[in-house]
TrEMBL record:
This is diguanylate cyclase. One of its GO terms (biological process) is negative regulation of bacterial-type flagellum-dependent cell motility. Gene3D superfamilies: 3.30.70.270, Periplasmic binding protein-like II. It catalyses: 2 GTP = 3',3'-c-di-GMP + 2 diphosphate. It is an enzyme of class 2 (transferase). Keywords: Membrane, Transmembrane, Transmembrane helix. It comes from Alteromonas profundi. Pfam families: GGDEF, SBP_bac_3.
Amino acid sequence: MSAQTETPHHADTTDAPITYCIDPLWTPYEAIRNGSHVGISADYMQIVAELTGLTFQLVPTESWQQSLEYVQAGKCQMISMLNVSDYRKQFLDFSIPYFAAPNILVAREGTPILQGYAGIGNRLVGIVKGYRQIEYIRRYYPDVRLKLIRSEREGLAQLARGEFDVMVGSLLSVNTHLNNQQINNLNIVGYAEPFDSLSFGVRKSFSHLIPILNEAINQIPESKRVEIYRQWNNVKVRYHKDYFKLTVTLLFIIFVILTLVWRHRTLHTHGRLMGQKNAEIESLQTSLLDRNRTLEFLSAHDTLTGLYNRNHMIQKSEEEIYRFRRFHTVPSMIIVELYQGIDPRLDNHDAHKKQYLKALASVCLATVREVDVVSRYTEGQIVVLCPQTNLDEGQILADRLLSAIDKNTELADMQMVASIGLAQLKEGENFSDWIERATKALYQAKRQRANRVAVAD
């Protein structure tokens, strides 16, 4: 893919094309077809090119693992669509996420519903070589047995043949391959966390591109994002022919023709009308499912910062409270709020507030762990939910976040002061009690009028 538009603000970045690699077999997220980059990431890169004046030049590869090797070796300068991971942070810097989608577990018919990786047991799990999920599984579920595969398309065929028991895959990609390959003996049996939160990855020597990419991502209208999602969400219903029923029906029709010709005509007309109505109903059901998925995605995110919104944070917090009561895994909550150190009245200026909230969101996403959930909880507050994190571990994360905010040049130029409140969930607390204690700790930090972390009692 190549796109170039003259933009005065970024004129110095368009002198030479930026080489990039993709996952060539990850339809519909991205793929190489007849030497060209197609898919969701291709559409987003086209928009970014138009907004920034950057020129992108595809470096073809044969697999996702080869793409990762190419960017490490400097054969391409960026990756178009990938998740953040500790391993990848060693050689890449990341933009803010621009597309999110769930990961799923797929298995043969007859496999029960699996409660995530904890429910896999002794089953052999197939996963594409180089996927971020491998790091996650080896860190948090080291007993799960893995079989590395080349692509999701090949993995589904191997799964259908019984070469392993369960496959981890991306929802849109799995749906596409199941329909294209007409595989009928596989079912979705669970969700696989963490879900995909996909960004651009840039070699550290080209990290000056990150602010340019972030600015372009923030300018993409929500209507365009929905349009891209709808275009590539090509989930189709697969029909199964039942030849036994067809034979019985034909015999019955012959019998009716021999006995009552006029009734046959009536039934034929009635059947035709019913078929039309069923087709209309199926079309409406497919359309409704598509709209519901789009609305579900939009309802979970804040449009200004790209973070999760308040409702999503409350839902995830309730899940952690349930886990705490059942499994005694302690979570912690961090609340961050910024204010103008010199003139607090500037905090109410809309343009100024949008600027520092976006900067704060970027710092939080770049600092927290993969398992942490970052959301814009109120107009000026960002909440970080930290699963399986006690108070001491939460203190380390909060201090690291405060240090990252203090070192951020954009926030430093605006002379912003950060206040952070930290609270660990206690026995018998509900969500309201928990966040109230964290908020009190935040107000305690704000009274210091300096960069400060306060811990709730």
